[in-house]
Each structure stands twice: as C-alpha cells, then as structure tokens.
Design a protein that fits this description.
The protein is an alpha+beta fold. It is built from nine helices and eight strands. Helix 1 packs antiparallel against helix 4. The relative contact order is 0.18.
C-alpha cells in the first residue's frame, strides 16, 4: 500500500480537476498585510493553497482586436467567467475534503471584490502564489509565472491543515522590460519593480483601470482589456 500525505491527496484532486498550478505558502510573515486587506479572521489560517488554471492562449492572443465584439465576448467568457467558476468549484471540493479530515478551511472567491474603494479582494491570490514559489509580481502587478507569464487565473484556500510550503518567493525577472507599461491604454503602471515594502499605488493606479472599464460599458462595449496580460514576453515566448 502506498501512503500519501493530505497535501499529496489535495494536489492530486486539484490536478485531476483541471488545475495546472498547485502551491502551498506559509503566511506567518505576512500577517500585517493580510489583516489590512481582509481583516483579523484571515490570520487564523497559517497556510494558503494556491490554485492556478492556464488561460487559452489563442483567446489571449486576440486581445489586440478586442474592439471586435466576438473577441471581447470570447475572452470575457472563456478567459474570465468560466475559468473563475472552475476555480471556485475546485476550491470548494478541496475545502470540503480538508474539513472532512478535521481541519479548518476558508475558500476565497476567485474574483469577488470586497472593497470598491481600494479595488481589492479579501485576500491577495497573487500574494499566496508568490509566497508558494509559483511566480513573481511584475510591473503590471500581475503574478508572472516562468512558464506562462501572467496568463493564469488564481484562487486560494486558507487552512490550518499541517501542510508544507512548496517553494520560496521568486525574485522578479522583468528586468528592463516595460512592454506592459507601454501598452496600457490609460497609463495605469509607473514601471516600478515590485517592492513588498511599498504601497501598490506607487506601481499601479487601479482606479484608472476601473474608469476605463466603466467607459467601455457606457459606450456599449464589453469591458475587456487585458493588454498587459497579452503582451508579457513570458506568456508569449512559446508562440
């Protein structure tokens, strides 16, 4: 008989359900940031399980033509709505499994905002994936993976189950590249490299993005951009 750990079982379930990236991070050194963004409850969970699904590359590659309604709607559906639903379903499956094994667990929605002023979710999926060694935070403030760049959607399951971190934070590899900065239609990025001691606003103006999406909707267009995600060399290198 082959004995596996709970973590091995969780990873197998995740991969069998379409997850490409699976990682575990220790949150003990990020308590202040986590409380500031999501509240005191979250720091009672010492570990985060990061789950990532790759986007469909041909859909992302069409984003420069997002003014065509078919392109925008296909991206909105298959690279956002459906992927987020898949992530939430997998997070729910894993959470039930962890709970049945006697541990506390809290799945974080893949794409639900809790603060419209800060424009942020309850927990940073990028933080969890970064701490798990799955990628680094780029100049676009997206999580950049070595294999697929930012062409990945993420969700997180918080838990007190006895898990083992899967890696260490990756140093940024953007170097002098500013493709995401140059392509942004509203100049939302300053081009600064990620520094965990700095506020996000020094690198990225999220309100500019939100206003741009609102403008698209008001003009009867699908609120789709994603050019920073499209242009990253780490996502395009295989094509």
């Amino acid at each position: 008989m082959i004995f596996t750990t709970l973590q091995d079982e969780l990873k197998k379930i995740a991969l069998d359900n379409g997850v490409y990236y699976f990682g575990v991070s220790d949150l003990s050194n990020e308590r202040e940031f986590i409380v500031e963004q999501g509240g005191d409850e979250l720091v009672s969970y010492p570990y985060a399980i990061s789950l990532g699904i790759k986007l469909i590359h041909p859909i992302v590659d069409k984003l420069p033509f997002r003014n065509e309604r078919s392109v925008a709607l296909n991206y909105q559906l298959h690279a956002y709505d459906v992927i987020n639903q898949r992530l939430d379903l997998i997070a729910s499956i894993l959470s039930s499994y962890i709970q049945e094994h006697g541990h506390r667990v809290l799945p974080i929605p893949a794409a639900e905002r809790i603060n419209d002023e800060k424009i942020c979710a309850q927990f940073s999926h990028k933080l969890g994936a970064h701490l798990a060694g799955l990628g680094w935070i780029g100049k676009s403030c997206l999580l950049i993976t070595p294999e697929n760049g930012p062409r990945v959607r993420w969700t997180t399951v918080l838990t007190d189950a006895p898990l083992t971190p899967t890696g260490n934070k990756l140093d940024e590899r953007c170097g002098t590249c500013n493709e995401c900065v140059k392509i942004c239609p509203v100049q939302a990025f300053t081009g600064r490299n990620f520094d965990e001691t700095e506020k996000r606003e020094l690198r990225y103006d999220a309100k500019k993005c939100q206003e741009y999406f609102n403008e698209l909707k008001n003009n009867g267009q699908a609120p789709v951009c994603g050019l920073c995600l499209y242009v990253c060399p780490y996502g395009r290198k295989k094509r």
